[in-house]
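Protocol step 4 of 5: obtain the predicted structure for the target chain.
Materials: sequence only (see below). No template structures provided, no constraints applied. The aim of this step is simply to have a reference model before the mutagenesis design in step 5. Sequence pasted as it appears in the construct record:
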Amino acid sequence: MRSTGRLSKTSGESGNTPAPNDAPLTAFDRTALERWLATEEIPPYRCGQILRWTYQRGATSYEQMTDLPAALRQELASRVPLHVPELEERLVSALDGTRRYLWRLSDGVTVESVGLPAGDRLTVCFSTQAGCAMGCAFCATGEGGFVRDLGPGEMAQQVMLVGADFGQRVTNAVAMGQGEPFAAYEASLGGLRLMNDPDALGIGARHLTISTCGIIGGIDRLASEPEQFTLAVSLHSARQATRDRLVPAMRNQSLPRLREALVRYTGKTGRRPSLEYALVAGVNDSPDELDALVEFCRGLLCHVNLIPVNPSTNVPFDRPPLDRAKEFVIELQRSGTEVSIRSERGSDIEAACGQLTQRHASSSGRGAAPSA
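Step 4 output (structure tokens):
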């Protein structure tokens, strides 16, 4: 093993890890970085040093990583570039202190994240993709279409930068921003693992939540992972026709199959998933919809999170009156299901998914993807 840590092998010899000449550091999670360093005969402790400089100290260049040999810093800079998102726009809610961020990545793609303060707690909602292909009817993200998956480091950087902006340790992070995490499963899990890693962000696994539209294969895979990450499923209706309208990309994954996957998940992990239910006036708030939801949840270990739909000029839906949401709470509790109503945050700064991206694209003449 060469003590200098000098890189010498070609990118084609790096096996299943990303090719260094084609990928920035943000494309690597810890496992991939360890494997790649091993192929280059670099001492394994260098991995922890690189992670601490990148995600704890917020280094913006390898030159700042002064405990790495100069030759290694130079080679890393030329072969595994360190990119840091640029802040394109930042909005602060006068109502509750919520902060909304639009980041421009190294290739010009923009993504959003949100900081949600609550006393000594700080939750960050981060994106796993630029844009989204799911096309949920009430979500503004899909308006711009799907652009690309994010790398694990690009997810972790969002959380790191929001925490730095607040000057506060991030206690919770949720993959509920732009994108479908299970459509980029490996990258999303890599991002969560960086957030959990004590050499990176050090957030407890149970305080890291991955939210899916209900991709059954992803739910089954997550149940077998060693970490105790939290699962949230965007249900939005327990009637197939309504759910197909609201979450069209899930038409090929029926509600009975989804429920079976949740039963397998809870049986294997013992953990309680959250079922996200965006209440939309005149669409999924009727007595029949409520009855179907009660039956779907009966006997299922779960927590229903009712979310009055976010108002948006891009989405032709309205939220029902609060009394209707309270009726859902009463009936679900009566049937033995845990339920809560999510409090609205950042309504004065367009804090719904995708709203800031779409407004910025319209005002600047640019989309989510870089111009040619």
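Step 4 remarks: The chain has a mean pLDDT of 88. The two ends are 44 Å apart (CA to CA).
Proceed to step 5.
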